[in-house]
Structures are given as structure tokens and as C-alpha cells.
Amino acid sequence: MHIWDVLSRRKDQDPWEVSGSINAPDLDLAMMLARETHFRHGEGTTFALRARGTDAIRECPDPQGIGGVISKEYRRQDGYVGVGAKLKRVHAEMEKRGVVIDRPRPKGHRTREAAGA
Amino acid sequence: MSYEERVAEFKARIDGGEKVESTDWMPDEYRQSLLKFIEMHANSEVMGCLPEREWIPRAPSLRRKLSLTAKVQDEAGHGQILYRVAEDLGKSREQMWDDLVNGRTKFHNVFHYPTKSWGDVAVIGWLIDGAALVTQKALLDCSYMPYIRAMRRICPEESLHLRHGEDLTLELVSGTDEQREMFQDAVNRWWSPIMHFFGPPSKPDKDVLLYWGIKTRTNEDLRQEFFSTYVPKLWDLGISVPDEELRFDESKGEWIWGDPGWDEFWQVVRGNGPMTATRLLYRKTMWDHHAWVREVVTGVPHAA
What we know:
The complex is a heterodimer. Chain A is α+β, with helices and mostly antiparallel strands. Chain A has helices at 27-38, 83-97, and strands at residues 2-9, 17-24, 46-51, 58-59. Chain A contains 2 helices and 4 strands, in the order ββαββα. Chain B has helices at 3-15, 28-53, 62-87, 93-101, 118-138, 145-173, 177-197, 208-211, 219-236, 263-272, 276-289, 291-298, and strands at residues 247-249, 254-256. The relative contact order of chain B is 0.11.
């Protein structure tokens, strides 16, 4: 089984940067595994492979599909926008219900007293 | 240059903040400690798929099923990345897998426990992934560069999982009384395993992983960060923690916590947890059943 170093670019003009490596018996399978293992969430604009011990860099032939072509927001941070605000809303609701546990905590963490409760 | 001199030079490099590559010379103790640590991390990622996988068919909505499936896929992917890093230290993936499924190597204590309700999925996603993220972020500055690259890939995904778990938690906590009780019950059952997850308080001067810069922070330091990040949030949600002694000592600036006892921890990490045998058997069975896939891809191995 060959070892392939995985190289990536965050933006189109960036230099290649080593992201990691994978095992695969041939280039086709290596491309598929690298895409799934290292770029599933749309990390980078493109990637390339270099067989360990060689200099030749093989670029991904179809980088436009990196990260998937259908909506997969549940795989990305932006699928959870608003969770922080939701935490505050639920906290306020729990204060109204009188179930919040009010004990000393490190500075920077809200207490009922600090929140004006 | 003698072996001792090379070791001293290597140690000076690490202490000076230099990073080690897989092709660099390294002392035997460094290589062995690093391999054992990364192998255990990889094992934990693939074994960590199983507790949550059990809830994919029972997820309460299609959206939850999609997000949980994606999370389990991520964990399996982390295992792939980490086994590759470990392989470069001199042990084959086949041998690592054989050692795992036959109980010769370890995986994290929290993955030896059953998941009894959807509340457990929320606790794993928020608190256990939160604990994991605290420890994994500390590895971003370890001494071994290939491991740092792996953690740069893994930590953003763990951060996403945390959001997923927090979202699940908020849904349960703001739901019906039964849902709140389900989450509270899950916290009660998982608290001791989470405390065990960070390991027993250790002496930094005797920790070989700290010595070589493989770990960068002590168990207790990481546990304290976990308390500061998550306990206030739990309290804000009206969720209690099953530790009567847990409190933040403002004069000391640290959390005081009750010793959960370590007998269970040692039993579990030695492979005697409540779900250890079941989950290892599952992994072994899948490995055997899918041998044909490996043979299609890599060819039938020659008879010995």
C-alpha cells in the first residue's frame, strides 16, 4: 500500500501546504480518500497528492466539488449559527422558572447577581 | 556523538520549541511514548463512533439523523488520520487494529459505557466532546509536527460537534419536564466517567509525555479548564452536577471537586468496562466480514 502526502491550498494563490497523508493502492483511490478524509467539510479550495518519496505533485482534477455539491449545513459551523444566543434565551427562561443554580464561578461567567436577577 | 548526547540534543530542541518531523532522528523513548499515545487516540476515535452510532436509527428527526451520522463519519475519519500518523512511527495499521480488537491496546474510558437515552447523545456531543476538545486543543502545540497537522484538521470538526451537542442539549433542557429529566439523568450517569476522562491527578515531573512535549498541560489543568467552561453553563440551565463537593474557590481561583474514586477507571481502561467486550466484538466482526473489500482493493494476501 502506497503512502501519499496530502497537500492543500486554503486559497487559490496560496502555496501548497502539507495537510497530512493517506494510504491508497493507486492514484484514483488516493484522490477519493483524500477528498473524503481531509476535505469533507470544504477545507481549502483544492488539494494535491505526492507519492511519498517522489517529487511529482498530482492535482485534484475536479476541485469544484470539494465539500459536496448539495446543502450539508449540518456538517459546518454555519449550520449552528445562533446556538450561543439560544443558550442565553434558555438561561433567561430558566431564571424565570427559578431553576438556575447560583453559585460562585470564575470571572467572566455570568451570575444571577451580575445579570441583575 | 554518543546516544546520550543525541538524546540531550533532541531534548534541547524540544525545550526550545522546535517541532519534530517523522523523518527526524528521535530517541526510542520518545518514539514509543508518542506511538502509544497516538495509537490510543486513534483507537478512541474509532471506538467512539459506536456509542453514538447506536442512536442513528432512533434519532428523533431527519435533521438530527443527518447531523449525528455526519458526526460519526467525522470520528471515523479522525481515526483514519491518526492511524496514518502513528504508522509513520513504525507500527502497521493492521497490527494496531489487531491489537485493538483483541484487547491488547487501550481506548478512552468514556467509550466503554452504554448509551441509554437520547440524553446520552446530548451529553456525549456537548460535555464529552467538550472535554475532548479541551485536551485536543492542548495538543496543537505538542512537539511532533505530524500530530499537530492532524489536530489542526480534527479540532475544527470537534468544535462543530460541540455546537451539535450544545444544540441538542438546549432542545432537551428547554423542552418538557421529561426531556429535562432525561438530560439530567444522563449528566448524573456520565459525570464520573467524564472526571475519569482527564485521568487521575499526576505529578508533572514524573509524566514522560509532558517531559517530551507530547502533552503540554497536566491532567488537572485540563480538568480545571473543563469545569470553568462547562459547569457555569450547566448551572445556568438549571442542571446540577452529581458532586456535592464541587465548588469554585474564589480565593484560590480554582475548582474544588470530589474524588470520584479511581477503581472503576482502572477497571474500565484495562478492558473491563460495561460495554468493552460488546464493542470490541462488533469491531472484530466487521473487520472479518469486510475482509473481501480489502482483498479487492489491495489483493489477496499470500499464505504464510
